[in-house]
């Protein structure tokens, strides 16, 4: 059966559990969350990454937040989380996780595309202190326009956390597997029913988009800069603590950073 092309932004109702396991499960997920938390600990001076000094809790938007694996723990530090996602199944998972963490009262779940938040949120909703958008850009047909939607919901001086699938990593992984025909075709986009992103991105392209907007870059990290290139899965799991240690060490060091399967960029919106 031929591939069925994707003709719109991806809704994960049919693959919610597989997506959550693939992105956040096991050692892969441990690496991802460790890199993100390290970056936030270095550049986002708020609880839970620094001691609570009694400042007012922040308002956080997790845009395309799925099951809230990164944002919901921030509610335990007192912050108010608004999590939007197009997928009803993802939101059901986020609701269950919020209940398990005991933070349901601090979490607002909204079933909406990011591009439709103007209609989905109350008219009086103000911009947020932090906007998180992880593993979303590569699943939409116009990622540059999506960045503008995210900035629209970010207050001046607020922070933006972007995490996206790195096309350099996809090319390198296929070279290691000797998939030369795929490399020659440049055919890396996924198809309907696939967990491969429909629109993987070169960091150079994303960097150009960000540089043209009122954003100051604070950190850039690669996520899974070598883990996925250990083709023998048994070897990957032999020493997980050592893998994590080296992933963190190399994640901000070139040339390893640019080979991350995902890229994380932490930015601050300029005050004009």
Name the poorly predicted regions.
Answer: 1-7
What count of domains describes the coordinates?
Answer: 1
- Mean pLDDT, all residues: 90
- Our count of helices gives 11
**Residues in helices, as a percent range:** 25-40%
Biggest β-sheet strands, sense, barrel: 7 strands, mixed
Number of strands: 7
With strands numbered from the N-terminus, the spatial order across the biggest sheet is: 3-2-1-4-5-7-6
The portion of residues forming beta strands comes to 15-25%
Name given to the CATH homologous superfamily: Vaccinia Virus protein VP39
| Annotated CATH architecture | 3-Layer(aba) Sandwich
Backbone shape: globular
Order of helices and strands: HHEHEHEHEHEHHHEHHE
Give your account of this protein's structure.
The protein is of the alpha/beta class and 272 residues long. It has a single domain (16-269), classed as Vaccinia Virus protein VP39 (Rossmann fold). Helix content is 36%, strand content 19%. The chain contains 11 helices and 7 strands. A 7-stranded mixed beta sheet has the order 3-2-1-4-5-7-6, sandwiched between helices. Helix 6 links the parallel strand 4 (128-134) and strand 5 (154-165). Helix 1 (16-24) crosses helix 2 and helix 2 (26-43) runs parallel beside helix 11. It is globular.
């Amino acid at each position: 059966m031929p591939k069925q092309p994707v003709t719109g932004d991806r809704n994960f109702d049919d693959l919610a559990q597989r997506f959550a396991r693939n992105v956040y499960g096991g050692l892969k997920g441990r690496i991802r969350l460790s890199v993100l938390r390290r970056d936030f600990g270095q550049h986002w001076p708020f609880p839970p990454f620094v001691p609570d000094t009694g400042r007012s809790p922040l308002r956080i938007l997790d845009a395309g937040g799925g099951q809230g694996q990164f944002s919901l723990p921030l509610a335990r530090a007192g912050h108010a989380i608004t999590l939007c996602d197009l997928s009803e199944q993802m939101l059901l998972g986020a609701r269950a996780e919020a209940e398990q963490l005991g933070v349901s009262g601090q979490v607002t779940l909204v079933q909406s595309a990011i591009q439709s938040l103007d209609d989905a949120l109350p008219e009086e909703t103000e911009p947020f202190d932090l906007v998180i958008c992880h593993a979303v850009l590569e699943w939409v047909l116009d990622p540059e326009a999506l960045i503008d939607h995210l900035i629209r919901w970010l207050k001046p001086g607020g922070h933006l956390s972007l995490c996206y699938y790195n096309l350099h990593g996809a090319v390198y992984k296929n070279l290691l597997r000797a998939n030369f025909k795929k490399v020659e075709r440049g055919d890396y986009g996924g198809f309907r029913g696939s967990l491969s992103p429909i629109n993987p991105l070169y960091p150079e392209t994303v960097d150009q988009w960000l540089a043209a907007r009122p954003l100051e870059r604070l950190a850039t990290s690669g996520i899974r800069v070598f883990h996925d290139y250990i083709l023998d899965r048994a070897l990957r799991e032999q020493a997980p603590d050592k893998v994590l240690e080296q992933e963190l060490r190399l994640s901000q060091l070139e040339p390893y950073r640019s080979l991350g399967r995902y890229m994380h960029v932490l930015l601050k919106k300029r005050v004009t």
